[in-house]
């Protein structure tokens, strides 16, 4: 099978047939929110530079890039505080007065910080204020800085919840898809193909376009199982499913309708197109013998085609019934052939 045929052998995307979306907040969005909070902090504390920094081992949070501001570089050089602190004049502090950014350019004179903690109470970073002139920092200002840290913590928690929610959505979508796929053949299972049929029938009816079905049966499959065993039979089914899907358009759907029976849903296709597809399927399956235990086994299918062109008032169940009747007619005709359902056969 060619690479393009192998791609066509995969089911159409769930989004094409069944509803389901997912979304998540990106790292860039989180950085944007934190930048807004920093701007609020600068305005709130009247000219002080507000810096949000994270511990180096908190890799789930964004870091400032290499182009750090002077305030960021200074705050990043200090340990994150365990509690709120404020140094009104760094030149008067016994330790920080010797810091290069204090004793020299840019001559930072004021520093205040409050820790950031995650939902487990672990220290993850800090919100800091710096200024280039000494400042008084009373209790009301300390509480305001603690409130600012609380807003940052809340934003981090919201983003974390969004990330968890997105991960769950992705996992649920994967589980949902697996519940719709036949585990052996990797095509739609019976429940999924019937649901797709209902969706496509409604859509085709609203758009005023035809809908066609093909019911396909692998001839003499029981004999293959009885003679060569079920593992060999499974291999045959997998290969036949791939060949059938290679004959269809991406917007068409193929599902396992029964043990060795398949249902193809062709939205927008008239009965002539469906007949051509079914005949192509028959030829592709018959053209390549299947080798089992060194024995070349000639395969064939029988198919019945039904379309809303011939049965405009038929429900989906009735349309399947008409295709089934045509399939039985194909088997009665000697198998390895395609029969179109007509009103006189109903």
UniProtKB/TrEMBL annotation:
<dbReference type="Pfam" id="PF00990">
    <property type="entry name" value="GGDEF"/>
</dbReference>
<dbReference type="InterPro" id="IPR043128">
    <property type="entry name" value="Rev_trsase/Diguanyl_cyclase"/>
</dbReference>
<dbReference type="Pfam" id="PF01590">
    <property type="entry name" value="GAF"/>
</dbReference>
<dbReference type="InterPro" id="IPR050469">
    <property type="entry name" value="Diguanylate_Cyclase"/>
</dbReference>
<dbReference type="GO" id="GO:0052621">
    <property type="term" value="F:diguanylate cyclase activity"/>
</dbReference>
<dbReference type="InterPro" id="IPR029016">
    <property type="entry name" value="GAF-like_dom_sf"/>
</dbReference>
<dbReference type="GO" id="GO:0043709">
    <property type="term" value="P:cell adhesion involved in single-species biofilm formation"/>
</dbReference>
<dbReference type="GO" id="GO:0005886">
    <property type="term" value="C:plasma membrane"/>
</dbReference>
<feature type="domain" description="GGDEF">
    <location>
        <begin position="209"/>
        <end position="343"/>
    </location>
</feature>
<dbReference type="GO" id="GO:1902201">
    <property type="term" value="P:negative regulation of bacterial-type flagellum-dependent cell motility"/>
</dbReference>
<dbReference type="InterPro" id="IPR029787">
    <property type="entry name" value="Nucleotide_cyclase"/>
</dbReference>
<dbReference type="InterPro" id="IPR000160">
    <property type="entry name" value="GGDEF_dom"/>
</dbReference>
<protein>
    <recommendedName>
        <fullName>diguanylate cyclase</fullName>
        <ecNumber>2.7.7.65</ecNumber>
    </recommendedName>
</protein>
<dbReference type="InterPro" id="IPR003018">
    <property type="entry name" value="GAF"/>
</dbReference>
